């Protein structure tokens, strides 16, 4: 029963993350389309904005990037700790036992 509910939760979480990614993609595409329409209407060149001028999507993308970087480093540290713990455990179990001298 708990295995089934765990699997359902995993599937639900995957769907939620996929939906969030779809929404971010749609918002990005809409923003890009608006900028292209503005550039074509005014025949102006698209340029990178100055530091002080940022849109909501740019700020959201920056915050998501920071969050993903933090998550990635935490995950790497956790996996590294687990792997190093496992290697210490396996190396100590493969060492021969010391012989007693009488």
Tell me what the structure shows.
This protein has 102 residues and is mainly α. Helices cover 78% and strands 0% of the residues. The protein has 2 helices and no strands. It is elongated.
Q: Which structural class fits the helix and strand makeup? A: mainly alpha
Q: For the report, how would you describe the main beta sheet? A: none
Annotation, overall tally of beta strands: 0
Order of helices and strands: HH
Mean pLDDT rating: 75
* Rg measurement, Å: 26 Å
Global outline: elongated
Question: Portion of residues in helices?
Answer: over 70%
The fraction of residues in strands falls at under 5%
Oligomer: single chain
Distance from first to last alpha carbon: 58 Å
Give the low-pLDDT segments.
none
Number of separate helices: 2
Write a concise synopsis of the structure shown:
This protein has 102 residues and is an all-alpha fold. Helix content is 78%, strand content 0%. The radius of gyration is 26 Å and the shape is elongated.
Feature tags:
102 residues, 2 helices, mainly alpha
Strand and helix layout:
Elements: H1 2-42, H2 56-94
């Amino acid at each position: 029963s708990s295995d089934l509910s765990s699997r359902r939760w995993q599937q639900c979480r995957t769907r939620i993350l996929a939906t969030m990614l779809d929404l971010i993609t749609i918002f990005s595409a809409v923003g890009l389309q608006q900028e292209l329409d503005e550039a074509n209407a005014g025949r102006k060149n698209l340029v990178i904005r100055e530091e002080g001028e940022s849109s909501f999507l740019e700020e959201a993308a920056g915050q998501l990037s920071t969050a993903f970087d933090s998550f990635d480093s935490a995950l790497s540290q956790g996996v590294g700790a687990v792997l190093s713990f496992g290697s210490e455990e396996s190396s100590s179990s493969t060492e021969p036992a010391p012989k007693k001298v009488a």
